[in-house]
């Protein structure tokens, strides 16, 4: 890896940029699912987004960032990492329900699952931005952050 690369990449910064993108799409989902009429096309677009962008984002955390934080002594069980993993699973369950609801054209369930995803992910992202990522920045060196950024890119 070249020196220039080390200066350019920081996995926490890149994951935070992902969060901004996810939050934007959650706003669109809210507009689509919380109005007087549900915009099913837009809800479907959100499902595509979650598979192609949000899910890979969670994978970067689960497969690259969190294991590295555990190595640095941040515990998985009974700590923030365990909570984040549990919330990723909860989100996946809501997404499964939302898919089923779309297939069945069940509007009240589409709305309920969409709102559940929105509130869960907004809260989840706030916790990562305000609590877990600052912890990560304390225990990871600049070089670690750069190495992790490269490993995250390789997951894509
Ligand atoms: Fe996460
Ligand atoms: Fe995240």
Report low-confidence residues grouped into runs of 5 or more.
none
CATH class: Mainly Alpha
Q: Between the first and last Cα atoms, what is the distance in angstroms?
A: 19 Å
Question: Helix and strand string, N-terminal first?
Answer: HHHHHH
> Overall mean pLDDT score?
94
> What is the architecture at the second tier of CATH?
Up-down Bundle
Task: List the quaternary state of the chains.
Answer: single chain
What is the count of structural domains?
1
Report the CATH superfamily. nmb1532 protein domain like
How many helices does DSSP assign? Answer: 6
CATH topology tier name: Four Helix Bundle (Hemerythrin (Met), subunit A)
Cα gyration radius (Å): 17 Å
Bound molecules: fe (ii) ion
State the total count of DSSP E strands.
0
Tell me what you see in this structure.
It is built from six helices and no strands. The chain is mainly α and 156 residues long. It has one domain (3-155): nmb1532 protein domain like (Four Helix Bundle (Hemerythrin (Met), subunit A), Up-down Bundle), CATH 1.20.120.520. The mean pLDDT is 94. One fe (ii) ion is lined by residues 58, 61, 84, 88, 124, 128.
